[in-house]
Amino acid sequence: MHAHQLDVSAADVHRLVSAQFPQWAGAPIVRVPSYGTTNAMFRLGDDKVVRLPFIPGDGVGVPVETAILERVGGRLPVPVPRVLATGRPDDGYPFTWSVLQWLPGEMPVPEALLDSAALIDDLVGFLQRLRELPTAGVRRAQRSGPLAPLADPVRETMEELGVEFDLERLRALWDDALAAPEWRGAPVWVHSDLLPSNLLVDERGRLAGVLDWAAAGVGDPSCELLAAWNVFTGADRARFRARLEERLGLDDAMWRRGRGWAISQAVLALPYYRETNAGMTEMATRALRALEQESVSLRTPGRSS
What we know:
single chain, alpha+beta, 2 domains, five-stranded antiparallel beta sheet
């Protein structure tokens, strides 16, 4: 996926675990298929997963995520992975790595949600509680706003999408997001990467876990609206918006900025991962298909196409 990406194998995991955590040395090691773009995941036995970065960190890595998980763990209405151990680099692997609790569940598929109304309530409840957590000493989230620094990169990358999408519509939506009033409130806790690949649902379709906290921190909560176009389809998206308005005071400006975050994530991801990450390509394509049905004229709270 990336230039200079490190190839991580089950043999590496076996060596690292055996040397540093011999109590787990005999557990089976199986690579976990993942949409992830920075970490390799290997299941260790039945109840653990090993997370190993395969590109050099840029300040967002295992130590950062570990600190975040320790702050939010046990304080939210749904499980997040518990950090069981932190591993050191060795002569064959150069980065800090972690062993996490394995959380059961499946990735939600927007077109096949078993109980979308319950999932909406679960996700809004999660966001509400997350926003209530103390923010003192918490770093800025990876997506924390404003959108302006992304203005030109997104416009330029849109040109790589060719005739596949309604670029005129996407450009108008992007300009509208950039023109939306900025967040004036105090920064609040945000996960900032609420894609389907970072959510788990149980056999009833209820929210069973939230994964990948490496991008989390404090910022403008509009970034959480990635979920609107990535997790939910049309009617469910409108219900999600209505619940956010009711319980978290979502306003029109936040919806417009959130739509901008969804556009930027999908536009920047699709050309980059098109040939190397089928999962990311699928998610970005789905989001852009949903976004190109939107209209900048739909600015009445509670309405969305």
